[in-house]
């Protein structure tokens, strides 16, 4: 199993963030975690990381329903930034709307669509990929 260097969670739900970070810790999933409460905060911070030449997260868990900028707004802006190393984005949301699932597939950068909550098996599968 391959351990992730840096993971990122973009979600406004503190209980989900706490639980996911705890699962990551138990699974020895990653070396570090960045957490942002909305898409705008994440976009601004990740853009700064790109501009300064620092290492981006290897993967992002992105919620769709958040205040300020939702997941779609984040995606629409983030894909406009030229990035040297690919970032894998997993949409992790409570939405089971077929339109959301269809829309997620239209983004090349989105690797998968997971319905909350994340389970230990989900993390193990990601580490095997």
Summarize the structure.
The chain has 129 residues and is an alpha/beta fold.
Largest sheet: 5 strands, parallel
> Structural class from helices and strands?
alpha/beta
State the CATH superfamily name.
Response regulator
Mean pLDDT: 89
Question: What amount of the residues lies in strands?
Answer: 15-25%
Coarse shape: globular
How far apart lie the N and C ends? 8 Å
Q: Name the strands of the widest sheet in spatial order.
A: 2-1-3-4-5
Helix-strand pattern, N to C?
Answer: EHEHEHEHEH
Low-confidence residue ranges? none
Number of strands: 5
Distinct helical segment count: 5
Keywords: Phosphoprotein
Protein name: Response regulator
SSE layout:
Layout: E1 4-10, H1 14-26, E2 30-36, H2 39-52, E3 59-62, H3 71-78, E4 88-93, H4 98-105, E5 110-115, H5 120-128
Parallel strand pairs: 1-2, 1-3, 3-4, 4-5
Organism: Arcicella lustrica
InterPro entries: CheY-like_superfamily (IPR011006), Sig_transdc_resp-reg_receiver (IPR001789), TCS_response_regulator (IPR052893)
Modified residues (4-aspartylphosphate): 63
């Amino acid at each position: 199993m391959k351990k992730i260097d840096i993971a990122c969670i973009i979600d406004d739900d503190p209980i989900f963030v706490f639980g996911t970070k705890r699962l990551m810790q138990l699974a020895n999933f990653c070396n570090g975690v960045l957490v942002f409460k909305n898409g705008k905060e994440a976009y601004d911070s990740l853009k700064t990381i790109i501009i300064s030449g620092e290492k981006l997260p290897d993967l992002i868990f992105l919620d769709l329903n958040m205040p300020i900028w939702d997941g779609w707004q984040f995606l629409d802006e983030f894909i406009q930034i030229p990035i040297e190393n690919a970032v894998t984005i997993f949409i992790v949301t409570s939405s089971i709307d077929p339109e959301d699932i269809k829309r997620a597939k239209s983004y090349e950068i989105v690797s998968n669509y997971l319905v909350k909550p994340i389970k230990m098996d989900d993390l193990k599968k990601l580490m095997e990929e």
